[in-house]
Every structure is written in C-alpha cells, then in structure tokens.
Amino acid sequence: MPLKFNISTPNLAKLIKLHLGPEILKNNNAWEILESPLSGRGIFAVRDIDAGEVILSDIALTTGPTSTSHQHICCVCYKTLEDIDRDIQCKNGCSLPLCELCSNGSSHSTECELFRRWKPKEPTQIIPQLLRFVSIVRCLFLGDTQRKLLLALQANNDKYYANELQKVAQCFANFPSDREMLEYFQYSIAAFNTNAFEGSCDRQQMENRGRVRALFPLASLLNHQCTPNADHYFDSPETLVIIATRPISKGEEIVTSYTKLLWSTLMRKMFLKMTKHFECCCPRCVDPSENGTYLSALFCRQQGCKGIMIPVQTKTLQPDWRCLTCESVFPHSKMARYQDFALNTINNRINACSISDMITFINDMCPRFCPPSNYVLVEAKLNVIWRMSRATTEVFTEEQLKCKDRYRAELLELLEKLGAGECTLKKLITEERL
Ligand SMILES: C[S@@+](CC[C@H](N)C(=O)[O-])C[C@H]1O[C@@H](n2cnc3c(N)ncnc32)[C@H](O)[C@@H]1O
Ligand SMILES: [Zn+2]
Ligand SMILES: [Zn+2]
Ligand SMILES: [Zn+2]
Ligand SMILES: [Zn+2]
C-alpha cells in the first residue's frame, strides 16, 4: 500500500530548504527530494558525485541524550560527566544530568521546569528512559517550520511505542494526562524511532562528548540498502554529514544502511522488520551466498559432514537451510537454536575475557563450532582489533600482533566482496580507530 503523507514532496523540499537556510544551502546542493521506487520519498543526486565527497549536511530538529546509562553525559552539551564525586544531576531537582557550565546557562530552563512540574518519582536517580525522553520533550519547543517538518516525516505505528510513553509516564508522579499532548508525544516517539540517528558526536575524540540521538529532516528521507552508497557522521550534536562511499551517478538514489554492515542477511532482515517495518529486497538480500561472504553460514548438522549450511529462501524469516556439501536440508527452528548458541558463546567471551584470551578462543575454540565466515565470529575479530587499537597498557606478543593484521586483512576482503566502498568501517579498520 503506498504511504500517505500530509504534505506534497515539492512542498516538503521547500520546507527543508527554509529550515537549512541560504548559508548552509550554498555548498549543499548535490541533492534533490523525489518520490522513490524503494518507498515514499527519497534523496537523489542532481550531479555525479565522487567517492568520499560530502553529499549533504543537515541541521537537527531536536537532539537529546541516548538511554545509555553507564556513561553519564550532560543532557545539554553531551560532554561526559567524569567527576564521580561531584553531584552530576541538575541542582534544581529535575533529575537530569547536567554539567557545571550548562547549569548556569538558559538552554535547559524550560525542560527543567516541565520535568520538575511532572515530579520525577526518583529524583536522585538518572533513569535511562527519561534520558531518552529528553529529545521527545524538546519537540514541544519547536518553531513553526520545524514543527511542520516533524509532522511531515514518516512515523511508523508500533504497539511498543505506546509502551515507551507509558514507561516514561510511570517515572513521574504528575505526568500530563492532556490527550493532545500525549498524542504529540506518541507521534514524536514514532517519528524518532522511524528516522532518528544515534551516534558519537565527538568523532575525533577531542571534546569528551558522548552519544546523541537526533532527528534530521533531510537525512530522515534517506532510504535503506544493505550495501549503501553513502554513510554518515555527526559533525556536532546538531549537524549530520552524509558522504558518498562510492561514485554516485546523476539521478541515482542516495541510500544508507540502517543496520550494521557485517550482519548476516537474516539478522538484517529481522532487525529491519522489527524496528523499521519493512522487508529489504536489495541485491545483497536476495543472493543466498551474500555476495560470496557466507555471513550466515553454520556447520552442517548431518552426522559426519563438515560442510556449511546456508538459508535456502531469501524472502522469509523462517527459511530452510541447505548444506553446500551433502545437500541435507534442516528447518530454520533447528538452525536458529544453533545460531543463538554460537552467538551467546562468543558474545559472553567478548565481554568477559582479556584480549589475548579472546584471540586464543577465536583461533582455537571457535573453528570447532562456528564457520569462520559466520558474522558473529567476524564481529568478534572486529572487537579484537578495536580493543587492541585502544589498549594502552597491555603489551602484545609478535604472534598476537600478526593475528590482528590477519583479522584486518580478512575484514577488508569482506568489505571488498560486499562492495562497501570507502565506508566508515573501512576507514576505522585501516586507521585502527573503531
Ligand atoms: C527513514 S524513513 C525513509 C524515508 C521514507 N521513504 C519517507 O518517505 O519518509 C524509513 C522508512 O522508509 C521505508 N524504507 C526505507 N528503505 C526501504 C527499502 N529499501 N524498502 C522498503 N521500504 C523502505 C520504510 O518504511 C522505513 O520505515
Ligand atoms: Zn553541558
Ligand atoms: Zn534541571
Ligand atoms: Zn537488503
Ligand atoms: Zn552436509
């Protein structure tokens, strides 16, 4: 069923240009907004674009902290609050974390007043749901153009989003019951969950800033493909930059990936269905070999066979699996249990062991129960590279350093097979800054 929006595509384009303003638009004109063959509206190149070129920059409608509770950041400037002895919560009693500088400024005063009026039940605690709700509350303070833009976005209907609001309401003694306001919150939650970007707003790790979630009106129109031609980064909490990962021809749709690049097809399919409500039919999704990467592969369950099994059908979340060697077929239920076992076994180690134990586990134990191409093992190798590039005190043996180089080469080969181009992940692997 075609999607219905409350605004025509040309009028939406006009509003976005009004929001960005002439200064930002001056060097920001390689794109146009058109109806997309993928779904609804999309962004298209108006000229040829080179790999690595900035395609567009966008300015947020609203931003807010993420729910990540283990790392407290100021809910206004997103700087990490490191001094555990100092009281990091707003001294006016709204319960939100705030840095010294922002507590003396005026940006926080209106939301602070609202939170205090609603009376947090546990004012001395920093509650993850309330952190996440800050970006939604800020939708109340939008100007006219920005509010129109918010209402023009796609907002998927999901029963879990009602839950999200209910959980927030339960954290306050005096949460509003006004229907119009609740509907506006509900809509804003759906618009955020359909379109928002989350990420570190401190790319160079110079400013000690944490993760942010933000809604960008133009970037919200980017549709998804599993091997996209564009990637994004936050230039500041309010500015998102979209860059080309490979050459893009005039007229081509600009697409990004809503999932992790190295996930298996089934994993991406499940994630997209659950969180974004659609089934991707891109070339990578319909190729059972997954561009020859076999990221889904599991060992054959037939006694004595050492072959690998892959999902046979690409259009279902419950495919049969077939062995490439003996051609046995097993139902998805059996293979899903096996995939969960591999995932849990490897992920439990990732979080619990030292880097050298992890390398030994990957090299000696994993090959017994998990094919090397399986995405869980691939992600474990990525994790090792990441930890080794950050470890400052640990000294590594020649052998361990060689392993890291081998993992890097394997991952780069994988990205090449996927056609991922000059994506952020490739830069991070080659620069070793994940
Ligand atoms: C961030 S929005 C993208 C912009 C959207 N097309 C619009 O008109 O506002 C995300 C939604 O777009 C749709 N979508 C994005 N990529 C898609 C694809 N490859 N196939 C089908 N639907 C897609 C899904 O409905 C998804 O929930
Ligand atoms: Zn601050
Ligand atoms: Zn406050
Ligand atoms: Zn796909
Ligand atoms: Zn077999």
From TrEMBL:
Residues 29-259 form the SET domain. It holds the Pfam family SET. Transmembrane segments: none annotated. It comes from the Eukaryota. This is SET domain-containing protein SmydA-8 isoform X3.
